[in-house]
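Weekly sync notes, structure subgroup
Attendees: PM, AL, DS (notes)

Item 1: joint prediction request from the bench team. They want all two components modeled as one assembly rather than separately. Inputs as received:
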Amino acid sequence: MARAAISAVTGEVSDSSDRMLQILSESSRLFATKGYDGTSMRDIAEACGISKSLLYHHFTDKDEIYARIALGSTQRLFEFVQDRLPENATPPERVRAFMVATGDYFQRHRSNWIASTAAFWSDPELRRHKERMMWRDRYEGLLRQLIQDAIASGDFRPVDVPLTGRLVLSSLNWMHRWYKPDKGLSPGQIADSYFDLIFNGLRGR
Amino acid sequence: MARAAISAVTGEVSDSSDRMLQILSESSRLFATKGYDGTSMRDIAEACGISKSLLYHHFTDKDEIYARIALGSTQRLFEFVQDRLPENATPPERVRAFMVATGDYFQRHRSNWIASTAAFWSDPELRRHKERMMWRDRYEGLLRQLIQDAIASGDFRPVDVPLTGRLVLSSLNWMHRWYKPDKGLSPGQIADSYFDLIFNGLRGR
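Output from the run, pasted for the record:
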């Protein structure tokens, strides 16, 4: 499970040594807890139990490590979610599946998610930022399409599609600020409960 | 309006000179756009059009400026929202008022909000952090009470109160990540639309 999470960080298990995976995993954890600015190459080397020179043998600098973590992370979220949409399900069930899959992805790659989110809106590398925004737009676009489908089928009332998409994504994206592992519901279960609240509403009578 | 926003930053207009207010306002803006780490005392002095020595005459260091911005910001949000809950309204209307008031507060104090949020979860000063968490808990507790009241009156179905509160707060808290001023709905209107979506649900038939 930990191994699966790591392989998703690189996306190229077969090309990467165990050492590379360990460095990326420990770096994600450090960036998530101490922030990018608060993490030094020395911290990363110590967390991996290796010398700084061995660390520099693998990566030129901290930014290169960060780039490996961040690049493709939104693309993989998009693909992970898309792969988990049931073909033969009602439109609302597909919206639910989108939400639960995002929760599951968050749970599997929490450190990577937090590290990537922290720098998402202020990524200094323009090309990298643009690529992530493109995948972010595809991810959000997929959700809007699912909502649109549910309206077209009559399963949803004719709500504002972008605003409804924002509400759904806000509920999922804010989880990284308060969710504590090993306590209560899993992120996938929380996403499932959010779907129930939003779909059925709060109205009692 | 700008002046009102500034006075809310300090909470003590009568004790503070215009210069102090200007420094706090410009610092909020810089922290919100460049981050705390990315903002220097030189940047703040330049933004205010004053010398560094005059800046140091008012504040010992950057942390003291930050403390003035962050301290009390959650308390003021709580009080702002509490003051705007209509006495003679149905429980659902009070939940709606809570959401709209939070949106209005966000709009009035956006820079301060963003600057405070960025450091909320990693405030190095433990006492300050505890005080903010206490007000945060009161703010969230107020919302849970409103939800509980709406369930008790039968206006809401018997939903999970903490989870419903999380959903509401997520929708409002995530706004600082995507909201662009002077484009489309105001934050208060967005909060109002979110209430409609969550209260009435998406179900079409």
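Discussion: Residues 86 and 178 of chain A are 29 Å apart (CA to CA).
Action: AL to compare against the crosslinking data before next sync.
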